Amino acid sequence: MAQTSQQILDKLKISGPLPTPKGVALQVIELTRREEVTNHDLVQLIGVDPALSQRVVKAANALLGHVSRPVVTIHDAVTVLGMRALRQLVLGIALVADYRHGPCANFDYPGFWQHSLLTALCVRRLALRANLMAAEEVFMLGLLGQIGRLVLATAQTEAFSDLLEQHEPEQRLFELEQAQFGFNHAEVSAAMLAEMNFPLLFQALVRDYRVPQTSKTEPGSREWQLLRSLHLAGLLADLSPAPAPERAAAVTAVRRAAAELAIEESELLELAAACMEEAREWSALLGMGSPSLPDLTSLFTAPEVLEEASEPPSFVQSPHDYKMRVLVVEDDRAMRALMAQWLNAAGHRVNVAENGVEALNLAELHRPQVVITDWRMPQMDGIALCRELRRLPAQRNTYLIMITVETIPDKLVEAFEAGTDDYLTKPLTPKLFFARLRAAQRVVQLQEELAFDREQMVRFSNELSIANKRLQQQALTDALTDLPNRRFAMERLEQEWALTQRGERALSCMMLDIDHFKKINDTFGHQLGDEALKQVADALRKTARAQDVVCRYGGEEFLVICPDTGATAAYQAAERMRVSVESLRMLAPDGRHMPLTLSIGVAEKGEGIADMNALINRADDSLYAAKTQGRNRTVLNS
Questions:
Q1: How far apart are CA 244 and CA 370, in angstroms?
Q2: Domains of the chain: which residue ranges?
Q3: CA R_g for the chain
């Protein structure tokens, strides 16, 4: 069970003294705890210690450099800062002065205060940037944010020194401290701030800021921004003592933390450089000596160390969520890497681009379903990119999300008019980022389902068309001979008759009958009879002219339609067919030759033939005449 702040301090007090200010500084702390204390009382007390007074005035001027009139006296300082801020400032100055050295062998006292000072200066600038808190208060939060380390070095000197000798990273050190003492130095820091009457918010921040992922603060809230700002400030301070081989990874951590606060690399570099410059002034003011500061420019131009994507929080994505092709367009590499890391961890297929020009090329190549783009970018900004994507037919349905710091309605209207579907404001938080992404998922998934349904409908329509054609063909085709059937023959003859009516074109037709076909069936069987029908049909098909239409009329009868053909030509075509069939050599199973011959009647449209039925009847009469005349012959217009 977690221990309370008082329990932690009581346990530590048994082991040894806690770091507390001495002399006038201690009296100031005690004085400000009284309800009836006045500014005049505080000014008089601080004035007793000229060295402390001088440092307080200088520190107040450094903290309030933006005021028009400089702080000259302690009275000015308490008036401008307020009693609580002045009390905190006195406390910090006193602790730095009194605990520059100590008995803990492996505890770097000067390095500790240099790290604390850099953290304080960085978080102060970050707080001013986002207007999160009064600069003087957040400065003290950064300065005393790791006071728990100093407490353990003071009260648990040997045990803490042994732990530090192992040179473990912060998270691992927490675990070792928990096992050794029952609490870690972050909890001790929170307990000390409670003892010093710091606000509850400050106590929570110092407990969580080194491992912000464990905090339960609402993403995007003021508390969350303060926590993340303090975390980034601590990472910037880490750059100073970090060994050279570890600095690339440390810079990567800084970039990622800055991206979460929507601080681009150029701004981050300016902020860090300004803090490093301030550190020299403050080190002299607090008597800390010259700080050892890294060359930030060379650090930030080093290649980024890629980190493995961690699993997203449980509220971010479900394993069953629809996975998409996402293109991230962002000129700041840390912000770009952060979004890519989130998306990859959620299982999406991600491509990244540094500007709109590169994004257009990648969009053509990878066909993203969602494009997440920053507004302000070199070469082509997000607005121009949206317009270009909307002009491309292949990208008109792409879901576009604009990332911006703009909240002015007219600016947002401009983004929507350019074609964006949604927007996100910086700084980004995973919870809101994935909430907006889920909205995109619903739209994209619906579009994909509609596209799939359209494809299915087209496929079904094509299959139905093919099936209809097949059925139509089957309905108009004789199954045995594969020739057009009687129904087809009548429809085609009707068409040809209509054409002759309009254009005075010639038209003839033939009726063909296999001679003695009943005898073939009776003698050799119906199976051989069917084979005879097939061979005759094949012979007719091969012998017919290109324009002739050969149909099976029924039984052993065939009808041949001869468009644009007069009687003489039709007669000649009929004779070729008759001879072709006569020449067939079909053998019965017993080896006997089975003769096949045709009787053919030919008729031409002419006088006395009023319609197509009359034409067929005339051809049928000619066929009858051919049979009565001895079969295996052709008769014309009998």
A1: 40
A2: 13-98, 103-300, 325-449, 486-636
A3: 48
Its CATH class, for the domain covering 325-449, is: alpha beta
For domain 103-300, is the CATH number 1.10.3210.10? yes
Q: Three-state SS for 608?
A: coil
Q: Between vectors from CA 278 to CA 276 and to CA 281, what angle results, nearest 5°? A: 120
CA 268 from centroid of its chain's CA atoms:
27
Measured in degrees and rounded to the nearest 5, phi and psi for residue 464 equal -65, -40
The 10s digit of each residue's pLDDT in 449-474 is: 888 888 888 888 888 888 788 877 77
Cα–Cα distance measured from residue 136 to residue 78, given in angstroms and rounded to the nearest whole number: 12
Contacts of 85-89 with C-beta under 8 Å, sequence gap 24+, read: 85/134, 85/136, 85/137, 85/140, 86/42, 86/56, 86/60, 87/28, 87/29, 87/32, 88/136, 88/137, 88/140, 88/196, 88/198, 89/56, 89/59, 89/60, 89/63, 89/136, 89/140
Give tens-digit pLDDT for 427-445. Answer: 888 888 888 898 899 898 8
Please give the structure tokens belonging to residue 66.
């933006």
pLDDT for 366 beyond 60: yes
Choice between 235 and 57, residue whose per-residue pLDDT is larger: 235
Classify domain 486-636 at the CATH topology level: Alpha-Beta Plaits (3.30.70)
Average pLDDT, stretch 348-363?
Answer: 92
Q: How far apart are CA 29 and CA 188, in angstroms?
A: 19
Catalytic residues: 556
Phi–psi pair at 378, nearest 5 degrees: -75, 165
- Cα-to-chain-centroid distance, residue 285: 51
CA of 541: how far to CAs of 65, 168, 558, in Å? 106, 94, 11
Amino acid sitting at position 210:
R
Does the pLDDT value for residue 502 go beyond 60? yes
Extract the tokens encoding 179. Answer: 């096992």
N- to C-terminal Cα distance for the chain? 119
Kindly state the tokens that stand for 28: 């100031």
pTM above 0.85, yes or no: no
DSSP string, 161-227: HHHHTT---HHHHHHHHHHHHSS-HHHHHHHHHHHTT--HHHHHHHHHTTSGGG--PPTTSHHHHHH
